[in-house]
Design a protein that fits this description.
With 616 residues, the chain is of the alpha+beta class. It is built from 19 helices and 29 strands.
């Protein structure tokens, strides 16, 4: 409860700073027009339209100085209400067309659309469909804004803040609307917390997966191929294949069987599943030159797996029936939202679908939870669990009673397995509730990774059934699961988590052999050593360049190779090596010598066991 209270207080602090920033902006540019200014993770933003003015980071010093003046006055935040017709007149008289548009839409449509309109700003509840009679405002000093709050008591109680960036943002997220300027800031209760956050951001820049992806030759993008369509190099493909192998092993242990499905399907499939109505504008459309059929590039895999289930009669003896596929999917993401590997148009899901009887839900879901815990322990990432439930809004399919039942089962599962969980309404999939696995990375950021989802809707829409013990027909429940989620997005998280220092099992190059000279006997010994390593399944390279040993060692360090060995006359005569071990893997600081067979076999064992620290 204390954490919840702290979060509420922090949210009020950040929301208050959004108003103070808007107030300061209006002092500096009196013709400024305002959109919405909600709280976001770590801070706030406000959308502004200043005729004839294009803001940049250089303007932040002026805005922050004006904000500090407002904070120094310690003006109270005063709440008051106004009839909606009067509020519209207020917006019009004060030349605030964006506020007027929101209020007019609200007056016409009622509270059923309030959630879509307000972005945290309007002073009323959402969802019951009632007509709006009044809205709330907040005033501090000479600034008044349409707002539902909450706020801190006064402007002097807003903690520490810093403006970070400004970007373009279409009004209400529609590219047909006017483009506004979105000013972002971060805010915390104390200067110390702010400094810690800014330090984390600096560290995040060093770990940026786009930067490391280029430096370590892992992936690239090509204008000729297209935005959001990553190409993986040989080194990056090692990461993909090793991760794919790992997730398949874990799911295979819980009884999943591999299937394969095509990357295109008729639009009819997604209309039947419900995805067409929900995600139609995200689909890549494909037309046949041979027939009149219309296809889409596959955005997800569940409807395909449903067709495999539906291809023959099923009995209770067949259940649970479990399919898995590392499948390539495609979504037509907006160009402005693409970001490295974290938001792409072509991605791979380690997708799994189990068709179960209702009394098998808990057993199958629990096994998947345990598999994810085993996976993220190997990745050295702490997990929390978000139970993502529906809210009272529209957009969810299926009987609400089934939803209540499913959500109760999920929470019961979380309690029985002693999961560190919290409930968040409004985060469910449109077809059912889910358990989202929230992983914390090395610099304290939290990411949603794996997911286990219950689905009562698609089995009903596709008419799936099985014969029960008494010969009657029953509808199975569908459990969706992805341990990595999108492989590309997981890599964007994991590359930054380890800073490009991959554990030996995942490293594109596990051992680098450096020759001290270019004599034939030295190169021959290095080559034979490399061949023996290859037979053990290791990824090894030989550096026989005509450079100094020191320069070769530094090169290996830059490429973040786990093990480097130097070969000269001493090593050839003794058949022993003293490995140089990457610093993050070291447990024992004493350098030791091993026979070449001992060294190679130990590295092979470490790779097989997927360890993060060395055995040497």
């Amino acid at each position: 409860m204390a954490d919840s209270n702290n979060q509420t207080e922090l949210s009020a602090l950040r929301h208050s700073l959004a108003h103070i920033m808007a107030n300061a902006t209006q002092h500096l540019w009196p013709r400024a027009k305002f959109g919405v200014g909600p709280v976001v993770e770590h801070g706030f933003y406000y959308d502004v339209d200043i005729p004839g003015v294009s803001l940049s980071n250089e303007d932040f010093e002026r805005i922050e100085a004006e904000m500090k003046k407002i904070i120094a006055t310690d003006e109270p935040f005063e709440r008051f209400t106004m009839p909606i017709a009067e509020a519209i007149k207020w917006a019009t008289d004060n030349d605030q067309p964006y506020k007027a548009e929101l209020l007019n839409d609200l007056q016409r449509a009622g509270t059923t659309v309030a959630k879509d309109l307000d972005a945290g700003e309007l002073g009323l509840p959402a969802g019951d469909g009632s007509k709006v009679s009044e809205v709330s405002f907040y005033r501090n000093g000479d600034f008044t804004d349409l707002c539902r709050g909450p706020h801190v008591e006064s402007t002097g109680k807003v903690g520490a803040f810093k403006l970070m960036r400004v970007s373009g943002a279409y009004w209400r997220g529609n590219e047909k609307n006017a483009q506004m300027q979105r000013i972002y800031g971060v805010a915390f209760s104390t200067p110390k917390e702010l400094r810690q956050h800014l330090d984390m951001l600096e560290e995040a820049k060093k770990r940026d997966h786009r930067k490391l992806g280029q430096e370590l030759d892992l992936f690239l993008f090509s204008d000729l191929v297209g935005s959001g369509l990553p190409l993986f190099t040989p080194r990056g493909t090692v990461l993909r294949e090793e991760l794919g192998k790992f997730t398949q092993e874990l799911r295979h242990k819980t009884g999943f069987q591999r299937v394969w499905t095509p990357v295109i399907a008729k639009t009819d499939l997604y209309k039947a599943s419900g995805h067409w109505d929900k995600f139609g504008d995200e689909l890549f459309l494909v037309k046949s030159q041979e027939t009149s059929d219309e296809f889409v590039l596959r955005p997800m895999n569940c409807p395909h797996h449903v067709q495999i289930y539906a291809s023959q009669p099923r009995s209770y003896r067949d259940l649970p029936l479990k399919f898995m596929e590392n499948a390539g999917d495609y979504r037509d993401e907006k160009t402005g939202e693409l970001h490295g590997l974290s938001r792409v148009r072509s991605f791979t899901q380690d997708d799994s679908h189990a068709f179960v009887a209702e009394n098998q839900i808990k057993e199958v879901a629990t096994a998947l939870v345990h598999a994810s815990q085993e996976m993220y322990e190997v990745f050295d990432m702490e997990l929390k669990f978000r139970l993502s439930f529906r809210d009272s809004g529209p957009g969810y399919l299926g009987d609400p009673k089934l939803w209540d039942k499913a959500q109760a089962q999920i929470e019961e599962l979380a309690k029985e397995n002693n999961l560190d969980y919290y409930i968040e309404e409004g985060e469910a999939a449109f077809y059912g509730p889910k358990i989202d696995f929230m992983a914390t990375d090395a610099i304290g950021r939290q990411w949603q990774v794996a997911t286990v989802q219950l689905d009562f809707v698609q089995p009903e829409r596709f008419g799936l059934e099985y014969t029960d013990e008494s010969g009657g027909k029953q509808q199975p429940v569908m459990i969706h699961c992805a341990l990595l989620g999108s492989l590309e997005r997981f890599l964007s998280v994991y590359i930054e988590h380890v800073g490009g220092r991959f554990p030996v099992w995942l490293a594109p190059e596990q051992v680098r052999i450096i020759t001290v000279n270019q004599e034939e006997k030295t190169l021959d010994f290095a080559r034979k050593l490399s061949e023996r390593a290859d037979k053990l399944g290791l990824r090894v390279s030989v550096d026989n360049d005509n450079e100094s040993v020191g320069k070769k060692i530094r090169s290996s360090e830059v490429w973040k190779v786990p093990y480097t060995i130097v070969i000269g006359d001493k090593e050839i005569e003794s058949n022993e090596v003293t490995p140089r071990i990457r610093g993050d893997m070291v447990v024992n600081q004493d350098a030791k010598t091993y026979t070449t067979d001992e060294f190679l076999q130990t590295v092979a064992n470490e790779s097989k066991m997927r360890v993060t620290k060395t055995s040497f």
